[in-house]
Amino acid sequence: MIIDIMKSVLFGIVEGITEWLPVSSTGHMILLNEFVTMNVKKEFWDMFLVVIQLGAILAVVLLYWHDIWPLHRGRGGKHDAKQGPMWILDRKVLRLWAKTIVACVPAAVVGLALDDWIDAHFYNWICVSVMLILVGIAFLFIENHNRKTTPRTLTMDDITYREAFLIGMFQLIAAVFPGTSRSGSTILGALMIGVSRPAAANFTFILAIPVMAGASLLKLLKHGLSFTAPELVILLTGMVTAFISSILIIKFLLAYIRKHDFKPFGWYRIVLGAVVVLYFTLGK
User: For this UniProt entry, which segments traverse the membrane (predicted)?
Assistant: First the structure.
């Protein structure tokens, strides 16, 4: 059990890092599982890979709490003489959640209808490697194109409902094709429609909250809540390490994109996709 707990720490770290960088957490998990295999049932393993995302989601909630929580006490100078500061509903936050829901609709509809079918037909190294390479090439192309243009949408608050829906359509690609990277596809889509890198990244992180939480809860319901004590410890360990590594990597990425573009991640995806192809065609 101790060995499996140590392995869950490793998987949690990789999940926390690759979930937010546009490099595909699925591709990294598939490769890591080839070298580090936990001694657990397949049903638990399939659930573990999805549910440890809850740790990553909690990191976003913590870092973006003031952006996503709509109730604020005493803002705007409103004050009741008898009861003290009043709770005020922040309309800007409500608009952000409304845009988030609009962006979630395409992936939610397809994911609920075709979740098992997608896992059966596309969750394999061929799909993952192809999407790693294609999205990597797309990042290089878009970043080269954007060097000559100025983004129309500079902040997350400026994102329109139309832009939110279009970003959600790009997220749908990631929901169908493993290896695309949810963050990669949404950031790429946002850049293509004229959203700045910081706004694209921030909206992508917040968009992950309902999407990944929903996917994790769906897997939990399918698996059931009956865990053995070792399984529960392994799952919680993976979630905690995913939470810690997510906080660090989100802060890193937000600082990185202030001065740099996403081209290095494009090249990394292409190389990783080639590694996946070579490993599964020649190495096995």
Answer: 44-65, 96-114, 120-142, 163-180, 200-221, 233-254, 266-282
Strand 87-89 and strand 79-80: the pairing is unpaired
Spans of all domains in the chain: 2-71+84-283
Q: What one-character DSSP code corresponds to residue 147?
A: T
Average pLDDT of the chain to the nearest whole number: 87
Q: Is 138 left (phi over 0), alpha (psi -120 to 50) or beta?
A: alpha
Rounded average pLDDT over 94-121: 83
Which neighbouring-strand residues pair with 72? Answer: 88
**Residues 26-38, mean pLDDT to the nearest whole number:** 84
d(CA 153, CA 141): 20
Contacts for 93 with CB less than 8 Å, ≥ 6 apart: 67, 68, 69, 70
**Gap between the Cα atoms of 101 and 106, Å rounded:** 10
Contact predicate 251/6, CB 8 Å: no
Cα–Cα distance for residue pair 184/174, rounded to 1 Å: 8
CA distances from 6 to 33, 70, 242, 258, 265 (A): 14, 39, 13, 35, 28
In this structure, how many other beta carbons lie within 10 angstroms of the beta carbon of residue 276? Answer: 24
Average pLDDT over residues 173-193: 89
